[in-house]
Specification:
The protein is an alpha/beta fold. An 8-stranded parallel beta sheet has the order 11-10-7-3-2-1-13-12. The chain has helices at residues 34-39, 41-47, 82-94, 113-121, 187-202, 258-269, 286-290, 304-307, 313-329, 346-349, 371-387, 416-420, 468-471, 478-491, and strands spanning 14-18, 51-54, 98-103, 133-134, 157-161, 167-172, 207-210, 235-237, 240-242, 276-279, 300-301, 335-336, 391-395, 501-502, 509-513, 518-523, 535-540, 553-559. The longest helix is centred in the middle third of the chain and has 17 residues, at 313-329. Bound molecules: 1-O-alpha-D-glucopyranosyl-D-fructose (TEU). 1-O-alpha-D-glucopyranosyl-D-fructose (TEU) binds next to loops.
Length: 560
């Protein structure tokens, strides 16, 4: 298996996403930190994952939970110090865990030294050229330069007050106004991010997750996006799943972005062992995603097409096949991901009617939920996810079966989406609630015993059964299913990197074989399904009934 090989471990690694502010609080201020993470490395090694991806831990005013970086080569004091970070890297490696950090190259914080300098320097200055400042439209320049909308809602442009006190230029921010987009045409911008890569690689970091990897380059002249169909999920046309034809977009997935990653790859390859990248690129077509994974570019990319797929056998088979075909064509392994800190937790997604592709909390609210069904499907889905060829991600808390917290009080909502949408979109806080470790009441061991600080987001009162402590040793728990699956995945040839062949099974039942006589069968339907003959069961997501798979159950099988 690839994960033992220092040059190829990423081809089938299981990578655990540490959303650091919500993972474990070591210093008792209600915010997770490096000390908390260090104290839980044993848990992660024992869980059986190969690597960690840690969300941004750099100094930040936290306008977007750390994705507004004020200094890329330091650590936010609320999370710890650079020494703490180095100690963590050392201890993780000792525990057999590789570590990926998160680099945010599309935008900086508005408190980054460059932006502070740009504001003070005024229009036309070289300092402004590191960002995308433009004059406004209209006689008084009081209209934004174009119609681009921020991902968090509202215009993607903010007007500044010039040093002389007059209303002045506008700057682009595809995300919050506190996250000005940088100008990737500027050689100094390129050189500085490369120095950041080296800074952390020199400290032993094994790779980077690249935030919004598909947005760095904007079209010359910044033209409006004319009625573009974006995103483009496959939709059923005449009984077949198809996408509308791809068209260039002024800021998403422009072809010019690839040159940047060729440069980054050369830097990663200059290290021994080579460092690796995973792209966060919300590019729907696997064919477009594969372009990021050509041999001289990035290693892997999150598979959001899979994450957004409804619980539907035909749809899942379609996106799995498409992914493996397109990524295979450039020699890249697939990744399989069900949840992260930006999307509604999959237990809650799967608890709803599965008609449309999607991931947002707004699609869920107000729709009837069957959380027991959501959990069964989530259990079935993890054996699918870990049974597919390639690498996989586990978002902290999914191994406990945590649901989305859909009823956070409005006054605790922290995601900029809530304000930017004029309080119409509650945003992503519901999947970011601190992890419950032990005990029967909040903070469930998230903070050290005896502290009075509350977790930065309140945990539900009914999570006593979902703590690591409560689930440990309970054979029916989500945690023990993850532990068993991860243990088997490591020990069983045929799981991890490689290929698959589909089995011909009844409608609604997905099944495929892997190398070494291994098979994975997932009953996506609402009816009972027979298992294929000639196999023994290695692991099933729930108990078999009459030797077959009840609805929303999956199994790993081995040929006898
Ligand atoms: O996210 C990029 C992104 O466009 C989406 O995930 C987005 O957050 C979501 O669709 C909003 O509804 C990355 C980070 O993962 C996210 O946490 C940051 O907020 C964002 O970039 C800006 O840095």
């Amino acid at each position: 298996m690839a994960h033992d090989d220092p040059a190829n471990w990423w081809r089938d690694a299981v990578i655990y996403q540490v959303y650091i502010r919500s993972f474990a609080d070591g210093d008792g201020d209600g915010l997770g930190d490096i000390a908390g993470l260090r104290s839980r490395l044993g848990y992660l090694a024992d869980l059986g994952v190969d690597a960690l991806w840690i969300n941004p831990w750099y100094p930040s005013p936290m306008a977007d939970a750390g994705y507004d970086v004020a200094d890329y080569r330091a650590v936010e004091p609320r999370f710890g110090s650079l020494e703490d970070a180095e100690a963590l890297l050392h201890e993780a490696h000792e525990a057999g865990l590789r570590v990926l950090l998160d680099i945010v190259p599309n935008h900086t914080s508005d408190r980054h030294a460059w932006f502070v300098e740009a504001l003070a320097a005024g229009p036309g200055s070289p300092a402004r050229d590191r960002y995308l400042f433009r004059p406004g439209r209209g006689d008084a320049g009081d209209l934004p330069p174009n119609e681009w909308q921020s991902v968090f809602g509202g215009s993607a442009w903010e007007r500044v007050t010039e040093p002389d006190g007059t209303p002045g230029e506008w700057y682009l921010h595809l995300f919050a106004p506190e996250q000005p987009d940088v100008n990737w045409e500027h050689p100094e911008v390129r050189a500085d991010f490369e120095e950041t890569l080296r800074f952390w690689f020199d400290r032993g970091v094994d790779g980077f997750r690249i935030d919004v990897a598909h947005s760095l380059v904007k079209q010359d002249g910044l033209p409006d996006a004319e009625d573009l169909d974006w995103p483009r999920h496959p939709v059923e046309v005449d009984g077949e799943l198809r996408r509308s034809p791809w068209q260039p977009h002024p800021f998403w997935d422009r072809d010019e972005v690839h040159e940047i990653y060729r440069d980054w790859r050369r830097i990663a390859d200059s290290y021994d062992p080579p460092r690796v990248f995973v792209a966060e690129a919300w590019v729907d077509e696997p064919e477009r995603l594969a372009r990021y994974l050509r041999t001289d570019e990035l290693h892997t990319a999150f598979n959001f097409t899979y994450l957004q797929a409804p619980w539907d056998a035909g749809y899942l088979r379609h996106v799995i096949t498409e992914t493996l075909d397109e990524l295979g064509a450039v020699g890249a392994p697939a990744t399989w991901v069900l949840s992260n800190h930006d999307v509604a937790r999959h237990v809650s997604r799967y608890a709803r009617e599965q008609e449309v592709p999607g991931s947002s909390v707004m699609q869920l609210l107000g729709r009837p939920a069957d959380l027991d069904l959501g959990r069964r499907r989530a259990r079935a889905a993890v054996l699918l996810t870990l049974g597919l060829p390639g690498s996989a991600y586990v978002y902290q808390g999914e191994e406990l079966g945590l649901p989305e917290v859909e009823d956070l009080p409005e006054d605790v909502l922290d995601d900029p989406t809530w304000e930017r949408s004029g309080h119409t979109d509650r945003g992503r806080d519901g999947c970011r609630v601190p992890v419950p470790w032990s005990g029967t009441r909040p903070p469930y061991g998230f903070s050290p015993e005896g502290v009075t600080a509350q977790p930065w987001l309140p945990q539900p009162d009914d999570w006593a059964g979902l703590t690591v402590e409560a689930e440990t040793g309970d054979p029916g728990s989500m945690l023990e299913l993850y532990r068993s699956a991860l243990r088997l995945r490591r020990a069983t040839p045929g799981l991890g990197d490689g290929s698959l062949s589909w089995l011909d099974l009844p409608t609604g039942v997905l099944g495929f074989t892997r190398e070494s006589g291994l098979a994975c069968v997932v009953n996506v339907s609402a009816a009972h399904a027979e298992l294929p003959t000639g196999y023994d069961v290695l692991l099933s997501s729930d108990a078999l009934v009459d030797g077959g798979l009840p609805a929303a159950t999956s199994a790993w099988l081995i040929r006898h």
